[in-house]
Amino acid sequence: MAASYGCRATAFDGAAQVLVFLRASIAMNPGMEKQIEVTNAVISTQSGNMSFNGWEITNTAVANNFATNADGYVPSIRLEDAVDGAFYLKVDVEGHEPEVYRAATRLIKGQKVVHSLFEFTYYTDDLGWNDGYVETFDMFLSAGYACFDVERLTTVGKEILEHGAMQEIYPCGEGLPYCQTNILCTLDAASLPTLATIAHKSHRTGV
Fold it and tell me: Which end of the chain has fewer CB within 10 Å, C or N?
């Protein structure tokens, strides 16, 4: 979509079979090849090679030279080493979003990203991952970003950083089978008047 508006886009995915479809989609849209760069790699806090089967990432098992070209191993890179900045950064990696943002600390703290949308998977509390999301929210809010829950149409403020607050604000149970939402953090909330206005009103009224 970004490429269709004339932007240059970069996509990262560790699953080679997924990239087959992505590249086919690009090929079916004339002119997009020059706009989109596709990289077969996963984003992680460390560079090297990582065991990756499409669902689970063994991010502490960097491959040795013998395993570098073995099946199931893909390159891992830090996002801040791959790009200098972005107008729009989307992160959707099924619960590993905090890991990606840890690999983009310099970009976020340096305000090199204007808008970032990420999937917030809060059923991961049982796995002890929610601390990572608290860290992500803290990084954005401390860097001067405004964050919105685009599905609940509410603002996400510093109250979510308080101990235990995330579990109270985002409870997960049988009535919420997916326990996921999408969060937009932006440096330019003024360019999103509808979302910003609705979220502000919803936050005040408790909708």
Answer: N
